[in-house]
Design goal:
The protein is α/β, with parallel strands linked by helices and about 160 residues long. The protein has one domain: Ribonuclease H-like superfamily/Ribonuclease H (Nucleotidyltransferase, domain 5, 2-Layer Sandwich). The chain is built from five helices and five strands, in the order βββαβαβααα. Strand 4, helix 2 and strand 5 form a beta-alpha-beta unit. The longest helix has 20 residues. The radius of gyration is 15 Å and the shape is globular.
Length: about 160
Amino acid sequence: MVKILALDLGTNTGWALLQQSNATAGYRVTSGTINLKNDRFQGGGMRYLRFRNWLDEISQCSGGIDTVYFEEVRRHLGVDAAHVYGGFLATLTAWCEDHELPYQGVPVSHIKRQVTGKGNASKQEVIEAVRALAYHPKDDNEADALAIIEWVLKGAS
């Protein structure tokens, strides 16, 4: 069984886990979000420790991850968002290296184009397109992770 984790990195990280059987070509997708916001009593690095612990937990619960894909953001609306994303990206890539897992960033426009047909689709358009594929994302973060899974299923082009 192949297990692929897709992530939309951020304070509210969207995730989707594809478990695909080699024998039957069937698959199962589970998804959700994890809130990694610090409270006022936590140091700045706590969100990254919680994220790393969550990665350990999802890997253990799924019986191991084979590959990780993440939304590769090249432009942020603010400095704080860029710093937070960079911290999550560093944590994720270090975790993957430590576990000898392949990982790949997927440009935002590729994800949007795969699921909606246009690379500049709005968050709402991505949510609607993912819902049309019979998923039930709670927000745009989970929808983005599910869209990455669809990108993988369609041959990652």
